[in-house]
Amino acid sequence: MSSAAPASTGASKAPVNSRGRVIVASLIGTSVEFYDFYVYATAAVLVFPALFFPGADAATALLSSFAVFGVAFIARPLGSIVFGHFGDKFGRKGTLVASLLTMGIATFLIGCLPTAQVSGWSFWAPALLVVLRFAQGLALGGEWSGAALLATENAPANKRAIYGTFPQLGAPIGFIIANSLFLVLSMNLSNEAFMSWGWRVPFLGSAVMVIIGLYVRLKLVETPAFQKVVDKGEVTKLPLGRVFKSSWRQLILGTFIMLATYVLFYLMTTFTLSYGTAAKTVDDAAAAAAAAGKDFDPSAFTAGLGYARNDFLLMLIIGVVFFGIFTMVAGPLAEKFGRRKTLIWVSLGIVGFGFLWVPLFGGGFAGTMLHLIIGFTLMGLTFGPMGAMLPELFPTNVRYTGSAVAYNFSSILGASVAPFIAVALWQAADGSTFLVGMYLSGAAVVTLISLFLTKETKDMDYEGLSS
Predict the structure, then answer these.
(1) SS3 category, 467
(2) CB neighbours (10 Å) of residue 128?
(3) Please, what's the largest Cα pairwise distance for the chain?
(4) For each successive 10 residues of the chain (467 residues), what is the average pLDDT?
(5) How many degrees, rounded to 5, is the angle at CA 274 between CA 271 and CA 279?
(6) What 3-state DSSP class applies to 10?
(7) Domain 19-292+302-452 has CATH 1.20.1250.20
């Protein structure tokens, strides 16, 4: 299963990726990728139901928009296979550049799409949105694992969990930038202008961030761990086949270790934005429909919290600040106590948090804000150690493929369906979020079981280990 290695630069050469370059390259790439991803997620709630599914009622349009949102998660495992193959066979650097370009081009083109309201585009606009959303998912499927390997394979001894938090910070940073831009636009534009052209600005503006990310990544050299595989002639011809043959147990456990993290994050962002901005009373919903020139069906009404869009976006941004802070806190904790033990305690916290959804959301502004802070704090604590733990489950010569496949197959189970399931449970319970909270707790229990079946990876031999 080993192939002739690419030309070696020589095992005696010292690594030239400085600490600052590793931090910036791993952080900026994931920030760009997650920014692009969250721009779509926010638009899926605020804009796309009306612009790309104008003939449907509000609930159906929202579910249709979330269905397109979920297309990217179907694409992500395919992206993990494609980019993982090239990352394990030809190296981390070039693969990371390719994933960033793919995401950037797809996001820019979404900003150029005609909407379904344009004559002759009622079919093609949603169809092209699906294609470009698929491309976004394909890119993100290869991005995260490569960025995590870039950080951890360049990390000093006993610093992998700390370095592994650098790419993880891309998630809160990308979210804050994307939603802050939406917030600024919606505050300074009329609703008509925002729906006409303002929503396009975040998509088109991603080109600037992509150019910066490419500049930094093109200056990288290959990671020391992969270079050792090259020098030993242990580069794998077919990484996917090798990882399924030698590390199938780690693939399964890694997939379910990520489950609670995915469910928590997409409930805290996409679902809470829907729930938080939905009308609180039938009269409010009827008035909003009348203002938008739409018919209103009282039987399809599901009560939300009734916050204005801008107000709730600001609340989300404040909550995500805690996500970023506790992502950084999680690295030293996982380094000191171990990845497994840290994640077990955090997962227990997520189980308990699921039981607090109804009382916290019922506590007015203070309760809702506390809900967002607790949820995003737990998100940081569970997401931070993943940058080290998932790659550590796999040998070096299949590490890109193995960690990417586990991470992205988990996205199908935990992320693609999370907003859809949550909306369905919310509507089925006539506006109560109790079942949504139980859904989260159940996902955390599955993650706990997987962690108990996994060995600690803190002290493993990370460099040069091949299957």
Answers:
(1) coil
(2) 17
(3) 73
(4) 42 60 83 78 78 74 75 86 92 88 89 87 86 88 89 88 93 87 85 86 86 84 84 88 93 96 91 85 73 68 82 92 96 95 98 94 93 97 96 93 92 83 87 92 97 91 63
(5) 145
(6) coil
(7) yes
